[in-house]
């Protein structure tokens, strides 16, 4: 999950962890949340299972990044908001709106900062 510098700073203050303990920068300089090596899930997902459908609770729910708040809405290759077909719960969500697309495009521009 990509996160902005502001979100990384907020998560660091909230958790007391250094940024490099929960995110890394890719070759484009975009910060991405790390996955737990044992569970293969987000480092902030409280779970003990490595099954993709395993239950878990977000330990930073009140401070979670915008990408987490909007998921499973993502942008397709044409920058249109769609539901991520990899999410097993898409049937529980409404179809994305144009506003959802604008919000994600705005987030995408902030990721480069």
Can you characterise this structure?
- The strands form three sheets. This protein has a three-stranded antiparallel sheet. Strands 4-5 form a two-stranded antiparallel sheet.
- It is of the alpha+beta class.
- The chain has helices spanning 5-15, 66-70, 98-111; strands spanning 2-3, 23-25, 31-33, 45-46, 57-58, 73-75, 81-83.
- The longest helix has 14 residues, at 98-111.
- The two termini are 16 Å apart.
- The chain contains three helices and seven strands.
The total domain count is: 1
SS summary, helix count = 3
Question: What class would the helix/strand composition place it in?
Answer: alpha+beta
Helical percentage? 25-40%
* Strand percentage: 15-25%
Unreliable stretches (pLDDT < 50, length at least 5) are none
Helix and strand sequence: EHEEEEHEEH
Rough outline: globular
How far apart are the first and last residues' alpha carbons, in Å? 16 Å
Average pLDDT metric: 93
Number of strands: 7
**Widest beta sheet: strand line-up:** 1-3-2
Spatial extent as radius of gyration: 14 Å
Q: How can the largest sheet be summarized?
A: 3 strands, antiparallel
């Amino acid at each position: 999950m990509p996160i902005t510098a502001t979100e990384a700073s907020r998560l660091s203050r909230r958790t007391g962890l250094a940024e490099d303990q929960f995110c890394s920068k890719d070759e484009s300089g975009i910060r991405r949340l790390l996955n737990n090596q044992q569970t293969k899930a987000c480092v902030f997902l409280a779970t003990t299972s490595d099954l993709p459908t395993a239950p878990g609770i977000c330990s930073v729910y009140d401070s979670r990044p915008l990408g987490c708040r909007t998921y499973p809405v993502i942008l397709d290759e044409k920058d249109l908001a769609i539901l991520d077909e990899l999410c097993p719960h898409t049937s529980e969500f409404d179809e994305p709106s144009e506003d959802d697309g604008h919000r994600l495009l705005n987030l995408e521009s902030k990721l480069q900062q």
